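Bit of a strange request maybe. I'm writing a small parser for structure token strings and I need a real example to test against, not something I typed by hand. Could someone generate the tokens for this chain?
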Amino acid sequence: YVPPQVRRAQEALDDKKREELGRLKKMVNGLINRLSEPNLSSISGQMEELYMANSRKDMNDTLTDILMNACVTAVAMPTRLVMEHVLLVSILHHNVGIEVGAHFLEAVVKKFDELCKTDAEGKECENLLALIAHLYNFHVVHCLLIFDILKKLVSTFTEKEIELILFLLKNVGFSLRKDDALALKELITEAQRKASTAKKFQDQTRVRFMLETMLALRNNDMRKIPGYDPEPVERLRKLQRTLVRSSGSGKDTQLRVSLESLLSADQVGRWWIVGSSWSGAPMISDPNSKTQPKLRLGKVSSKIMELARKQRMNTDIRRSIFCVLMTSEDFMDAFEKLLK
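Reply from user aminoacidic:
Good idea to test on real output. This should exercise your parser:
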């Protein structure tokens, strides 16, 4: 039972919150609508100010909603427009905090996975894939995720998937080759194997074209890929370098997260965001579970165990690490014991 006066206060609070969120949405929408390459500097500055003035969660939710509405449409979005929107996310990711890029990336990947399972006629999947590709181009996400998506598409290998593989390779193929040539080679071999066994396509020319594109990538031959132009991405990368304040604007802030981790974030938590709250099962394992590791500590004095208790080392593994650190002779001894 909630007393009437408490209920009224709560409703007033909810109305106030809704009003604030509406105002915030209007402001962010106004900035995104004006977004273009020349005024990217001023708009990213204003967005950072909004991040400082409002709660991070509200800002992340609002920004992600507005960008998804702007970029995920049933018609193919202009490449330049998608790149500018993603560049804004990238600048905020580096200047404000990695949770900005992580929140946006998770929403995009989940939507992409959802749409891939349906037979949507529109270009939503391509638009979402373009967002993921440019998040990789602007160093928000690591190539691990791109390879995961490509492997998933190759494993399904229907005509729709072949279109998506071609689209993705055209956008980020040469960057993938630079980052992990071996993984790309394995992917090409797998795609060739699939193509040789799959005779069910009415349109064999698309499959042949995809394999030719893959071979051109493997041989580092840019001329063989029609319409490939790295210049716009390079120009925006230069702009990104001027707008990112921290020296770590490069690859150290990339989210090295797999497709599986992103899709199961609600079940297993978001380990890639430092300090992210999570209301799932507790991380400390159940003491009655059968798979509890047996920790061989040897003889530890009661004095050390008492110290561990005072420092609130409340699980076996915490106690053992504490005891190792306290009883080791030097760092090499501690290292050996911790490995055991």
